[in-house]
Design brief:
By secondary structure, the chain is of the alpha/beta class. Helices cover 42% and strands 18% of the residues. The chain binds pyridoxal-5'-phosphate.
């Protein structure tokens, strides 16, 4: 009897951990900006990823190579896998055959390594350069000087199997939303400058669950949202 009473309460939880209505609302919010949703699936189960896939989400972001590989094995092969976390050079070989976009390139050495493995697989790998825009010391990424030094280097032209498609950044983890807005606006400015150098660049990856609306207002066209999508 007690179980029968509880059943309707328990069922929604059994049915899955994704927030269908929230996800649909987020997709609607992105439309006027022509922005792409990268569903950040790190730490989530294969079942959660399958549920997102059923809803029509086919771009998944993971921050660890070791976690991405088994998930990719278990899921349909029309998913675009994006690496959003720090990438060690010795891990590049595992993702080179399939990765759709690497958001977290922050050194020339890493670009060279990606190029080398892309070449082995006869691919061109799209990369975003990760910029350090937050106040925290801990976040990875380059500053503008490092970025332009790298772009001026003649060796960059030799990397024929990578394509620099844009920039990525993470704002400070703070309640001061004016601060967050300034950081996104700064990244947008760098992005606009970069377009003079590299007419190919078109992706500005900024915004997560807590700050994606500000990011969109400041020119983001790719948001990386995780926790908001899950119950
Ligand atoms: C985890 C993560 C996200 C998503 O963060 P949420 O707050 O869960 O939306 C976005 N980008 C990167 C680089 C992440 O590691």
């Amino acid at each position: 009897m007690l179980f029968a009473l509880l059943l309707p309460v328990l069922l929604p939880n059994f049915a899955g951990m994704i927030r269908t209505e929230v996800i649909q609302a987020v997709l609607e919010e992105l439309k006027p900006y022509n922005a792409t949703l990268v569903a950040v699936t790190k730490t989530r189960s294969i079942e959660d990823l399958q549920a997102l896939y059923q809803l029509g989400l086919h771009i998944f972001g993971e921050n660890r190579v070791q976690e991405m590989l088994p998930k990719r094995e278990a899921l349909p092969n029309d998913i675009q896998w994006h690496l959003i976390g720090h990438l060690q050079t010795n891990k590049v070989k595992y993702i080179a055959p399939f990765i759709a976009l690497i958001h977290s390139v922050d050194s020339f050495k890493l670009l060279q390594e990606i190029n080398k493995h892309a070449q082995k697989h006869n691919r061109t790998i799209a990369c975003l350069l990760q910029m350090h825009i937050a106040q925290e010391e801990t976040k990875f990424g380059m500053d503008e000087r490092e970025l332009f030094t790298m772009l001026e280097s003649p060796e960059l032209l030799e990397l024929e199997n990578i394509r620099i498609a844009g920039l990525m950044g993470m704002a400070s983890n703070t309640d001061d939303m004016q601060q967050v807005r300034r950081e996104f606006a700064g990244l947008r400015q760098t992005f606009e400058k970069l377009k003079y150098w590299l007419p190919d660049i078109h992706i500005l990856s900024m915004g997560m669950s807590n700050d994606y609306r500000i990011a969109l207002e400041e020119g983001s066209n790719m948001v990386r949202i995780g926790s908001k999508l899950f119950a």
